[in-house]
Prior knowledge:
This protein is mainly alpha-helical. The chain is 57% helix and 7% strand. It has a 3-stranded mixed β-sheet with strand order 1-3-2.
Amino acid sequence: MSTIYSEPITDYSEIALRQRGVNLLKRHGIRNENLSQEMKSGCYTSIFDCLRQMSHEKAKPLVSEFYIGFPNGEDLGDYMNRIIWLPWFRPARKYEAKEIRPHVKRIERAFKIDNYPLDLTVDEGVARDANLGAADCAAWGAVWGAVWGANWDAALGAAGGATRGAAGNAAGGATYIIAQDVAELRKAYPENPFEKLIGVYEFGLWPAGIKDEKFVVWHPEVRRR
């Protein structure tokens, strides 16, 4: 890996990050006109849509190398690669509560909420009425900055196919990784709470939160592929 991509990034402006992406394609010899144009435009949703059309073997190194100069860039690249290919609300099969419960326990611990019985429901309406509660605004306020904003939009774009709330959760996980060395944040949340949600999203399910003293997880219909 060349020095330019391993050194910390100092300019998180849209123009600088767009150019970084264009240079990265050239460096890897990627001749993809659509992806190149989207890199120049800076439309993250379209950029990640193009990446999803590539093979994992070609796309993943691009994502990893792009983020290596960010704070905690190696972890961030791994995380972004994880959310790009999530099967948002498309479960591969019918899952049982006992398979999901260990993941919900991790979410409850990370968000510092009580342990609740699991309601694995097929009723999307029930899930929409559930919530995880408010985050510690003071703790997250401590991490606000240029790098935070730059990656928030990117993570939202990476979560193609997700609802706005689910995409926001994915972006929250990326933000935590960038800012995990901030003392106020680590004190409030020793673990990355949003990353624990990804463990359920990877099943194609939605960890919606608490409703009527139960932790609600929506199980969409299994569709033929």
